[in-house]
Amino acid sequence: MNNEIRQEQERLDEVLETINQQIGKIEGETSQRKKEVVNIRKHFWDDLKVNVDTFDDYLETIIGLRQQAQALSVSEGEHRYTSKRLSTLRRMKEAPYFGRIDVTEEGSSLTEHIYIGTSTLTDPSGENFIIYDWRAPISSVYYDYPPGPMEYSTPGGVIKGMLEKKWQYIIKGGVVESMFDTSLTIGDEILQQVLGKGRDKHMHSIVSTIQREQNKIIRNDRGRLLIVQGAAGSGKTSAALQRIAYLLYKNRDKLKADQIILFSPNSMFNNYVSNVLPELGEENMQQVTFQEYLDHRLADSFQVEDPYEQLEFLLTEADAPSYSTRTASIQFKASLRFFEIIKTYRQSLERSGMIFRGVKFRGKTLVSAKQITERFYNTDTTLSFHNKIDKLKEWLGELLDETEKLELKKPWVEEEIEYLSKEDYQKVYSQIQKKRGDTEDSFDDYEQENELLARMIVRKKLKKLRKRIKALQFINIKAIYKQLFDEQIRNEQWKGGNTPAEREICLSTQKMLDEGKLYYEDATPFLLLKELIQGFQTNTSIKYLLVDEAQDYSPFQFEFLKRLFPSARMTVLGDFNQAIFAHASERVNFETLTSLYGMDKTESITLEQSYRSTKQIIEFTRELIPEGHLIKAIDREGEKPLLTQVSSREELHDNIVSKVKDWQSRRYNTIAIICKSAAESAAAFKALSLIKDMKLVQRGTNEYEQGVVVIPAYLAKGIEFDAVIIYDASAQTYGDESLRRLFYTACTRAMHNLQVYSVGEPSPLLLNASADSLLATTN
Ligand SMILES: Nc1ncnc2c1ncn2[C@@H]1O[C@H](COP(=O)(O)OP(=O)(O)OP(=O)(O)O)[C@@H](O)[C@H]1O
């Protein structure tokens, strides 16, 4: 052990001693708080006099109850706080800090040693910092500057000075294993070590090695919208998650984890990233996929197609007659033009075009659709559209009140009373008793009893109808959406919307709606129209919205999200080169996003350095895409990706089996055999049954598994594997230019090793790959 490390170990031992002392103290406090909570819960009612005889007694009871509840809530809060701190301190024991900066502030001759870790630690007085949280203002110097002049912002203003030295530590189990003076070492040794490791079940935090550009994303707090365009593996997801941790720290008095929502690509991804925030001592944010949101909002009306079903159709049914219309339809419905068309259409509904459902009760029409339409368009024209709908709702409610009265004496009610089961009757009877009070003469009047029973029966029958009216189901949104595709509306409102292609789109959309289906591309437009008619159900509690894999969202969907979360600041992270959905046109970019909040409220950051893969893998994958030369590789060496051409499926499978065996012997934890589609994955999985414990990843798979998996490329998005096999990169499978981004996404999942197979002629997508970047062999 050299002298420097010995000194650092001595300091670390002192820090660990302080942590242990604090743990001891907090353990005592936590168990004390726990006892208090249990005690208050147990004796909650003991000290409380419940008396409601007079109003004053009642008031006293309520006040007493509130005080008890408050005491309980304070104790619970304190218990939560101490237990959280306790688990943070326990975690810190493993590695209390990872970095140090030696800084001299302007105007001072003192050089301070600032140690940086995942959480703050102070001395017992609470005034002197032993460790600074990585999110503290001064810690940004660690990420932002090499030794030399530096500055950082604090709530009190900008502080300038000199960064004399910067140190990185590797501490494990309370032992300083190594330390680096970053002004002397070439390259980032710790980053290299971290990246060289094998992948396990979950993503990890990157706080000890956050890079300057990433730090800009994490700490950005200007603007309403932050757009991050970054190469595959450049740390977009990582930056998003550390950003959430940073926001929770910075706004700890006012922001809770459930006020942040992350839109993610699929549920397996949710599971994959679920450990990062808890690792940093924070609670997880809300996480949802766009599909889950659509299902939640539309499940009552339709079975909505899922985006992967759409993708699977596009990947496997290129020969279907409906193929070209469907792709055109997907692109059209993703456009801002369609968003505007829907807005104009909704405005036109103020004058004409609303379609209603008549209200029927026991097979008899109470009011017809036509009558509702007339009423709607003939009510006070000064009323706003939504007020008119509210008036309709009131009117229909009153109609049900009248119906209730009229139905009471009808024979069907008499009949139902007769057929009431004993239990039902008893139930009704006791409800009536309760209502009337326990007076002795309460049931002397048979007439009244009968009337009450009848009322109950009619009310029960009308309940469903009332609920439907309350939910505005008398408006036929499906028919209104379908009408949007009528020739007349198209001529009047679509502005140039009568091209043969658009006519085809309209016909096919109406046909699909008639079959009771809602394609994925129609789901958001349908929901938008529904919201515009029924009144937008916004969510104002969300303060930060983060959208990962943002290239998969259409401009239409972004407009929708903006409306849905009006109080949220948005962070959008994506990579156009991985845009795999059909709505992504050739020239997909985030420029249209700027118009969401305007230039002055939008900031953009580009990440060009890729961290995931070895230099050799990056050198190959960047040749697959336009402008790929801009992507920078980290200096991490590995084997060159290998392209092996085989002549038959049998040969392919034999090769894969032995490749997997070889990789397993090299201790790769995660090996993925990536296929083009779910259909190809299922076939590969069956054919490769010789590989033991192999798993097939499908749409519904929730957990990111270690070991060997067979997975369609689109489900592997956002995720990474130690080693990747591209199942069949032949011209037959990846013959079309439109598959370039999918193919690139698949190849960029590899961290340490990449093997590409091709049954027969390789894909033309590989033509650009130079012999230098891809070793080609024929079996
Ligand atoms: N600063 C960093 N320090 C250590 N590891 C990093 C850093 N930045 C990124 N990584 C690692 O690089 C890998 C890729 O990161 P991440 O998944 O966040 O990238 P991404 O841009 O979201 O990728 P993709 O677009 O391909 O899904 C992860 O293993 C992550 O831990």
Descriptive account of the structure:
This protein has 779 residues and is of the alpha/beta class. It has 4 domains: 1-200, no CATH class; 202-301 and 532-609, Rossmann fold (3-Layer(aba) Sandwich); 359-436 and 444-471, no CATH class; 615-778, P-loop containing nucleotide triphosphate hydrolases (Rossmann fold, 3-Layer(aba) Sandwich), CATH 3.40.50. It is 45% helix and 17% strand. α11 packs across α20 (500-514), α12 (336-348) runs parallel beside α21 (520-534) and α15 (411-418) crosses α17 (446-470). The model has no long low-confidence stretch (mean pLDDT 88). Residues 191, 194-195, 206, 209-211, 214, 230, 232-238, 575, 578, 611-612, 718, 720, 748 line the site of adenosine-5'-triphosphate. Adenosine-5'-triphosphate binds at residues 191, 194-195, 206, 209-211, 214, 230, 232-238, 575, 578, 611-612, 718, 720, 748. One of its GO terms (molecular function) is ATP hydrolysis activity. It is an enzyme of class 5 (isomerase). ATP binds at residues 230-237.
